[in-house]
Design brief:
The chain has helices at about 45-50, 60-70, 115-140, 175-180, 205-210, 230-255, and strands at about 1-5, 10, 15, 25-30, 75, 100, 105, 145-155, 155, 160, 165-170, 190-195, 220-225. About 30% of the residues lie in helices and about 20% in strands.
Length: about 260
């Protein structure tokens, strides 16, 4: 699916390794800071368009590493979350934020219902449709599917430093989170915490609810502090660290649910 600019149509969803038969499906809702030309940069300064407000730096690269290592499909949004945040439902004001932390977003002010609906139709619904297509294909093939969403976060938020390095987030279904947290001993030098720096109370588990719980899939959201993802080597190393928690967790859930790991 694509988002129309005047003379070209840019893809809004990336699907990698759709035929992967491993036990996971990887999502990356904030993979890109792309803003369609017709939105004139949403009135943002260049520094703001490249900041964490517009996307999750490093998250897509980590997601792709995991996709390859786990032989898992990966679905990513290729549009900035300031255009539309695919981890929010259309009725949420934060789906098209007028302000992100300290950054004002002029191009999101005073939108009509029709303008908001157009953003959802062009960005959110194609992403959701792609995820549903992959899930349905995997169900038809009787493949174990654990939903894993990959995000990154800033080391400083509203002026306050964050000590947590990796967050393992969940909603009411915590089976995958529990299984991953049981393996944090493999990362003794990392600060790994449950539902930090965000949790369900912050409205960040929409994808887990919609694409995971609604389909009866175990699910987890992984948040990585983005100062740990500054280079391609950092991204690859972080993916390897995550695998020390993810792979045994997938094996545990596969055993519990009667699938082959």
């Amino acid at each position: 699916m694509s988002l129309g600019d005047s003379n070209a149509r840019m893809p809004v969803v990336e699907i990698s390794n759709p035929e992967g038969s491993g036990g996971a499906l990887i999502l990356c809702e904030h993979a890109s800071n792309h803003i369609p030309k017709r939105l004139t940069g949403l009135g943002l300064q260049a520094a703001d368009r490249n900041s964490h407000a517009a996307w999750d730096p490093g998250a897509r690269a980590v997601a792709l590493h995991l996709s390859r290592a786990l032989d898992a499909p990966m679905v990513a949004s290729l549009v900035s979350r300031l255009v539309y945040d695919c981890n929010r439902p259309p009725e949420a004001a934060s789906a098209i934020p007028e302000k992100s932390e300290l950054i004002e977003v002029p191009g999101n002010r005073n939108l009509t219902d029709a303008q908001r609906q157009l953003r959802a139709d062009e960005v959110y619904r194609p992403f959701c449709g792609a995820v549903s297509d992959v899930i349905n294909a995997r169900k038809a093939a009787d493949l174990q599917t654990v939903l894993i969403t990959i995000h990154s976060f800033t080391p400083v938020y509203f002026g306050q430093p964050r000590a947590v390095e990796i967050g393992i987030l969940h909603d009411s279904d915590h089976a995958m989170a529990d299984a991953m947290l049981a393996n944090t001993k493999a990362l003794p030098n990392r600060r790994v915490e449950r539902n930090q720096p965000y949790g369900p109370q912050d409205g960040v588990t929409h994808s887990l609810q919609l694409h995971g719980m609604a389909h009866g899939l175990a699910n987890v959201m992984v948040e990585i502090r983005n100062d740990l993802l500054r280079t391609p080597k950092d991204e690859a190393n972080m993916a390897e660290e995550l695998l020390t928690m993810i792979q045994p967790a997938l094996a545990t859930l596969a055993h519990q649910r009667g699938h082959n790991a």
